[in-house]
Amino acid sequence: MNETTQIIVSIVFLIGVFFLTQFFMARKYRAAAEKIVNGMKEKGAVSPETAIEIDFGKKNLLQMGVRDYRPKALKALVSAGVIKVTDEGLCYVPENPGQEEEPDQDQDLEIEENFKSA
Questions:
Q1: Structural domains counted in the chain
Q2: 73-108 pLDDT, tens per residue?
Q3: Region Disordered: which residues (predicted)?
Q4: How many degrees, rounded to 5, is the angle at CA 53 between CA 26 and CA 67?
Q5: Which pLDDT tens digit goes with each residue over 14-27?
Q6: Is there a domain that residue 101 lies in?
């Protein structure tokens, strides 16, 4: 094999390894997210009144062992709206996550006015 072919094969191999690691990381995050949601449903945290505190959302710097995917999975679930957070910092899984609350009309008008004035 000449030198150019070796370089091309090496680059293709490295790209393949990169995508494989990304795939397996995504699977780990997805599994952690499913465990979080299922655990919250089992505990009955399906409304603001029954919301619970989630203690693994904070990273422990002294933790040794395998990587804990739950903190980042929790952040992703909150940002996606799958898990809601109350004003007190308690979390719950809404019973109908696809049905969002009605947006505040006044807030929408303020946002539109800010865009028009900018």
A1: 1
A2: 888 888 888 888 888 888 999 877 555 554 444 444
A3: 94-118
A4: 30
A5: 999 999 999 999 99
A6: yes
Q: Is residue 25 part of a domain?
A: no
Question: Quick one: which of 102, 57, 59, 104 has its CA closest to 78?
Answer: 57
pTM: 0.65
**Domain contains 26:** no
| 10 belongs to a structural domain | no
Q: Which position has the token pair 């191999």?
A: 13
- Hey, which of 34-48, 57-71, 91-105 has the most confident mean pLDDT? 34-48
Query: Which tokens go with 8?
Result: 């091309």
What is the C-alpha end-to-end distance of the chain, expressed in Å?
60
Task: Find the helix or strand (DSSP H, E) in which 84 lies.
Answer: strand 84-85
Write out the residue range of the structural domain in which residue 65 sits.
32-117
Q: How far is it, in rounded angstroms, from Cα 82 to Cα 99?
A: 11
Helix or strand (DSSP H, E) at 34: helix 3-42
